[in-house]
Amino acid sequence: GIIQRQDIPEANNYVNDYANLLNETIETALNTKLKAVSESKKAEIAILTVQSMNGLSINEFGIRVGEKWKVGHAGIDNGIIVIIALSERKVKIEVGRGSNITDGQAGEILDTYMIPHLKNNDWDLAIADGVTALINKVNEN
After folding, report:
1. Global pTM?
2. Distances from the Cα of 69 to the Cαs of 104, 115, 122, 140, in angstroms?
């Protein structure tokens, strides 16, 4: 079956851990950090973990999440969404066009801070380290 728009989960906070990958302490800390980033107006970063993308590619899924969530500040496409799909073992950092980090920088963060932990199935460390690196990069610019 084709995935429907309503199959994309809702955004309830900056961290939306539908796959239950994060321990509560890390999740709370990340929500606090991401709220501060949003208030700085440099970017708005959201995290989504899902059990499965139901047959969609990570690129297609990322586009649909971006369209539904509308992450970023009004009039500036500066939203960034970190997406992790557990069963497909896929991860993506979706970067808005108005963001102050490039797709290349997002890719470097994935390769350096996330992929090594994912290889060890250390999902919460992957998310915590990746998002922290992302916040640091956004704040540099």
Report:
1. 0.92
2. 23, 25, 27, 25
